[in-house]
């Protein structure tokens, strides 16, 4: 660590918003301040063979009744416990709420028929019957709400049951076949993940007597090893599609029946549609089709494009809940018209030309314009680039990686992450690229751009390609908005003869900054989709002069905020380390050399600078060293540059200038030295539908290292989650996720551990345990770098500190030196006599060095603490 110097410092699978249902036999009753709940099993629709089905429900009753009621439906793979937060919010706002576990999941009986009108939808109708029998419910004021699987059910129920007077459907589908087989291409990764949620753990008859609550579990089904809790016809149809990549007639019938598209013209209840902008399962196009289909016959529809989605379930749920409360309030206590405002979350907005900071902000337009430009303003850019030959490898391997179920939105939210992911999302020999001119003024893309291209197959009569629109920054950074691509399958080709096709590009919301360019990429592989297994060669060219039509919109800013801050650092670093593929667009890189003289130094940072668009310097000429065995605290107020420094340190972003070495090796995305480093930055991100243990094992598998090197036992001991380690992560509290994230960073016992605010969400005893863990970790000769705003905790935990303010280094040194610098020390002419006098008075004396609290030193170093807002 350098000597003291002084100078003038935001994790599947399916995000759930839902809640439903009803009961017959009351099991438990308890109370709360403003509402009480009643748990019960309600009779559902019998299975085809006549087997009775019970549905597990919770009824939330507010203090004041009768009141409007809301039926809440769960997401796929979850149960009624996922709906508790939303149900409580609704109940606290005066609604009677019936939340339930759908058939085939959790403690409910029966098989999964996938939102079948005969089963799941009829179950919901029975629950509406139950609500109407309750004296606490206003009979003509019943709404339905749900997210994903529950959102699809909400729309279907509104189409079949006229008793529904209001609908709130979040991140759901319109046409299930188009969602799972878009443009004829099988979305195998998401579909496999989705159906995998139907294979839940069961209790063998021989063990039921050993489990405390097993007697309460419904026994109205017999799970199949090969089909889990799916109904046999659903299972057979899915397995056929998984083998061939093509939906047979049976699966098409199932998907058609489960698609709201089949009933939109029957929905008369005012409908709220909230759809996530980070969603490769059900993108914005699905909500667009629902909105147009419902509004066609004059039913009021409001559309909100919110943050998050299936690829980032940690974001946007509050937006959906708030919009739902406003909507139900308008429907039941006011009025709604067919003219509804449209709200969306703008990504990549530049809020300050002086700071150059990119932030998220919310915009609102008077009405919903659609996504394809037919009712919007459009901009036309002319792409350039010659025809390019690209190859599709045999077996579709290696494949580009863009959409990862549950993670894509998280990985796409920071431009810096593209250094680790851009190389994975486009493989040069498989990708053609076409470039736009530089953007002269900011361009807000709000929907699906379109372009016409030509495709020529050398020998095949069909072609499968994946088309995307990327944002190329002036510094060479490439961003794939929301990690979305458009899959296209073209049939009836004549080898050697060009075919011109119109390509609707992914629906995204992004502001492209001045000086940037747009890049159209056409690729032959994508890990998330099924591709032809034989080798192919295509030639891709531009048609119509390369005209790219971009939809945009005039909309006022109604809210603004900081950039989204959810990362899966471990996975991103592991993928970047394992797969160092160069992107099709060549990028100018600085030549970095190893430093043998620093081989034993965990961290060496010299004159580090990170500058963003508009000249804003998040880190400005920072230098410090970290030695072995130290626990170093990185301190500074919000905006100091702490997290940016850590992101550079772990290889997630590249610096503008300066040098950074870890154990003498330069840090770049994918650098081998990163295998010696464990990181936990800006909050944990996990696959919510997997257990804590499964998440740890998945992360370690992604690193490509041997299982026996992981030291899982030590990591699990650190996590301290007990039996909860085998529960799904979506049931974890924030503190539990935080502890799991730290355990993930410690897998393999890395020589350098980098932690960003590790004690967030932990209670005092857990913070004390974490302090001991970090100190013991460093005592083994390893090194810890930790950022924190808890100054007293840093003072007790760390051996050294680095203080930053407004991107600059203010001080660096040992805690003893910095906290000991300054203060007041009493001086006397004769210390021995003074001690004797005090002891005669009964006062024991001890010689201590002058020392101030670290908090006082910190506040002195950063002045009045004003921040760059």
Q: What descriptors fit this protein?
A:
6-stranded antiparallel sheet; alpha/beta; 24% helix; 869 residues; 21 helices
SSE arrangement:
Elements: E1 25-31, E2 35-43, E3 54-62, E4 67-73, H1 84-92, E5 96-100, H2 120-133, E6 137-147, H3 149-160, E7 164-170, H4 176-180, H5 188-196, H6 232-244, H7 249-257, E8 271-276, H8 284-295, E9 301-306, H9 317-333, E10 342-350, E11 358-365, E12 377-382, E13 388-392, H10 408-412, H11 418-425, E14 431-435, E15 443-457, E16 463-472, E17 478-479, E18 486-490, E19 499-512, E20 517-523, E21 536-542, E22 547-552, E23 556-560, H12 569-578, E24 603-611, E25 617-626, E26 631-635, H13 642-649, E27 657-662, E28 665-666, E29 677-680, H14 692-703, H15 712-719, H16 734-746, E30 752-756, H17 764-779, E31 783-787, H18 791-797, E32 800-805, E33 808-814, H19 815-820, H20 831-840, H21 854-861
Parallel strand pairs: 4-5, 4-6, 6-7, 7-8, 8-9, 9-10, 26-31, 26-32, 29-30, 30-31
Antiparallel strand pairs: 1-2, 2-3, 3-5, 10-11, 11-23, 12-22, 13-21, 14-20, 15-19, 15-21, 15-22, 16-17, 16-18, 16-20, 24-25, 24-27, 27-28, 32-33
Helix pairs in contact: 2-3, 6-7, 11-12, 12-14, 15-16
Written account of the structure:
- With about 850 residues, the protein is an alpha/beta fold.
- Helices cover about 25% and strands about 25% of the residues.
- The protein has 21 helices and 33 strands.
- The strands form five sheets. The chain has a twelve-stranded mixed β-sheet with strand order 1-2-3-5-4-6-7-8-9-10-11-23, with helices on both faces. Strands 12, 13, 15, 19, 21 and 22 form a six-stranded antiparallel β-sheet that branches. A six-stranded mixed β-sheet has the order 29-30-31-26-32-33, with helices on both faces.
- A hairpin with a 7-residue loop joins strand 10 (about 340-350) and strand 11.
- Helix 15 runs antiparallel to helix 16 (about 735-745).
């Amino acid at each position: 660590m350098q000597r003291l110097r002084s100078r003038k410092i935001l994790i599947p699978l399916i995000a759930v918003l839902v809640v439903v249902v009803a009961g017959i036999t009351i099991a438990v009753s308890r109370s709360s301040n403003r509402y009480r709940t009643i748990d019960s099993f309600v009779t559902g629709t019998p299975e085809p063979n006549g087997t009775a089905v019970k549905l597990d429900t919770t009824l939330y009753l507010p203090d004041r009744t009768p009141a409007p009621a809301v039926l809440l439906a769960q997401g796929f793979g979850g149960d009624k416990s996922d709906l508790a937060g939303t149900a409580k919010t609704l109940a606290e706002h005066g609604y009677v709420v019936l939340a339930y576990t759908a058939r085939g999941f959790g403690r409910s009986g029966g098989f999964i028929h996938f939102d079948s009108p005969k089963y799941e939808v009829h179950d919901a109708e029975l629950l509406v019957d139950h609500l109407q029998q309750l004296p606490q419910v206003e009979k003509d004021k019943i709404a339905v709400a749900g997210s994903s699987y529950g959102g699809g059910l909400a729309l279907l129920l509104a189409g079949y049951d006229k008793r529904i007077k209001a609908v709130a459907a979040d991140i759901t589908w319109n046409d299930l076949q188009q969602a799972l087989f878009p443009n004829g291409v099988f979305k195998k990764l998401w579909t496999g993940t989705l159906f995998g949620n139907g294979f839940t753990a069961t209790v063998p008859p021989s063990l039921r007597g050993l489990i405390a609550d097993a007697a309460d579990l419904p026994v109205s089904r017999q799970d199949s090893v090969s089909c889990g809790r799916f109904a046999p016809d659903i299972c057979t149809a899915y397995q056929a599609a998984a083998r061939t990549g093509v939906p047979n007639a049976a699966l098409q019938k199932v998907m058609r029946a489960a698609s709201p598209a089949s009933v939109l013209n029957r929905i008369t209840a005012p409908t709220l549609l909230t759809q996530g902008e980070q969603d490769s399962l059900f993108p914005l196009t699905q909500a667009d089709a629902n909105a147009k289909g419902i509004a066609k016959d004059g039913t009021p529809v409001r559309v909100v494009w919110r943050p998050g989605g299936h690829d980032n379930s940690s974001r946007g749920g509050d937006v959906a809940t708030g919009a739902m409360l406003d909507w139900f309030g308008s429907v039941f206590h006011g009025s709604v018209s067919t003219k509804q405002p449209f709200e969306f979350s703008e990504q990549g907005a530049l809020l300050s030309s002086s700071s150059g900071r990119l932030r998220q902000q919310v915009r609102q337009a008077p009405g919903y314009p659609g996504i394809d430009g037919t009712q919007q303003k459009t901009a036309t850019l002319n792409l350039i680039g010659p025809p390019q030959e690209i190859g599709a490898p045999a077996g579709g391997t290696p494949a580009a990686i863009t959409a990862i179920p549950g993670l894509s939105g998280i990985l796409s939210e920071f431009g810096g992450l593209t250094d680790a992911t851009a190389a994975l999302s486009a493989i040069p020999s498989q990708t053609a690229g076409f470039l736009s001119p530089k953007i002269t003024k900011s361009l807000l893309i709000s929907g699906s751009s379109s372009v016409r291209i030509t495709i020529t197959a050398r020998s095949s009569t069909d072609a499968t390609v994946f088309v995307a629109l990327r944002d190329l920054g002036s510094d060479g950074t490439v961003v794939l908005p929301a990690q979305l691509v458009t899959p296209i399958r073209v049939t009836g080709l004549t080898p050697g003869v060009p075919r011109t096709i119109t390509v609707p590009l992914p629906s995204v919301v992004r502001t492209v900054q001045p000086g940037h360019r747009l890049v159209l990429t056409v690729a032959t592989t994508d890990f998330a989709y099924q591709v032809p297994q034989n080798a192919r060669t295509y030639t891709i060219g531009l048609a119509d002069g390369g005209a790219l039509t971009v939809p945009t919109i005039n909309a006022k800013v109604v809210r603004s905020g900081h950039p989204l801050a959810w990362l899966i650092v471990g996975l991103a670093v592991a993928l970047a380390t394992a797969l160092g593929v160069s992107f099709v667009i060549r990028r100018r890189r600085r030549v970095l050399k190893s430093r043998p003289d620093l081989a034993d130094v965990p961290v060496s940072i010299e004159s580090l600078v990170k500058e963003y668009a508009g000249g804003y310097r998040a880190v400005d000429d920072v230098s410090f060293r970290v030695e072995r065995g130290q626990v170093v605290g990185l301190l500074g107020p919000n905006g100091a540059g702490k997290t940016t420094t850590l992101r550079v340190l772990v290889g997630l972003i590249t610096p503008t200038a300066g040098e950074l070495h870890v154990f003498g090796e330069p840090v770049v995305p994918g650098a081998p030295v990163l295998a010696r480093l464990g990181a936990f930055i800006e909050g944990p991100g996990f696959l919510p539908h997997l257990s804590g243990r499964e998440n740890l094992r998945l992360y370690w598998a992604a690193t490509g290292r041997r299982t026996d090197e992981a030291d899982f036992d030590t990591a699990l001991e650190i996590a301290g989650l007990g039996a909860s380690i085998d529960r799904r992560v979506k049931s974890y509290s924030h503190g539990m996720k935080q502890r799991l994230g730290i355990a993930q960073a410690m897998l393999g016992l890395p020589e350098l551990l980098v932690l960003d605010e590790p004690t967030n969400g932990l209670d005092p005893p857990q913070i004390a345990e974490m302090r001991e863990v970090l100190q013991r970790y460093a005592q083994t000769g390893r090194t810890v770098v930790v950022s924190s705003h808890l100054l007293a905790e840093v003072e007790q935990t760390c051996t050294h500190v680095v203080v930053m303010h407004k991107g600059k280094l203010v001080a660096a040194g040992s805690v003893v030196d910095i906290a000991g610098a300054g203060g007041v020390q009493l001086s006397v002419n004769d210390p021995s006599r003074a001690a004797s006098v005090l002891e005669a008075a009964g006062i024991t004396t001890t010689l201590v060095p002058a020392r101030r609290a670290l908090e006082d030193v910190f506040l002195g170093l950063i002045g009045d603490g004003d921040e760059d807002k």
